[in-house]
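lol ok so funny story. i was supposed to be doing the assay writeup but got distracted and ended up predicting the structure for this chain instead. priorities right. anyway since i did it might as well share w the group, maybe its usefull for someone
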Amino acid sequence: MGGQSKKPLSIVEKRQQKIVQEAEKKKEKRGQAKQTQVKESASKQVEIDEGVINKVLEEISKEKFITPYILSERLSISMTSSKHLLRKLREMGKVRLVSKNRRIEIYQAA
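and the output, tada:
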């Protein structure tokens, strides 16, 4: 009949301070995580030059076929960079496009 007794104001204030501190810690962690992701993605961008093209041609010669995913895993570059590399090699006549749909492109050494 009496119901629950109310908590003293000091305990309520302590809880509120704890909640605020936890929220600040989460914001700091989120900020740090975003910064590291940006650095990783920026480092995976590759400029297309003769050295990179030679590495790609070596990888292609080892395999029956190559996809952008295989290339990005082997050379530790981004998917976008590997797609650009394979398209450029196709224009140069080094590889030929075997199959393509909206998700994947499969290439073979020419």
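Residues 36-41 have pLDDT under 50 and may be disordered. Residues 9-43 form the longest helix (35 residues).
back to the writeup now i swear
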